[in-house]
Amino acid sequence: MATLKVGLVSPEREVWSGEAKMVVAQTIEGQLGIMPGHAPVLGVLLDGSVVKIEPADGGEWVSAMVGSGFFSIADDEVSVLAEQAELGSEVDVADARRALDEALTAAGADQDGTAERRARARLRAAGSEA
Fold it and tell me: Could you tell me which residue ranges the ATP synthase F1 complex delta/epsilon subunit N-terminal domain spans (predicted)?
């Protein structure tokens, strides 16, 4: 079975890497599902979205919140380069809820909604709805 070689990185660290059956990413133009044999693409990630990865070993899907960044697909290799990234399994849900509450309270200060989008994405990645 063909697989994808996937790397999800942020400036601080490599967040996840390995073989995958599929990757789903939200771009500024819409959602994109990536499977082996996908045509080469360079895309811009939607800030405050969730990237989902289906590991090739049959394990549970991996979800990660991503800040702005981009991804590239070439020769069954997917590189996701995000300004900020956090695995759903690492999200402190109580902290993410506090961040969302703060973002909603300070809506005027966060005019572009970045803090709110990222807090909501952290909760979605952790499997908790905002």
Answer: 4-85
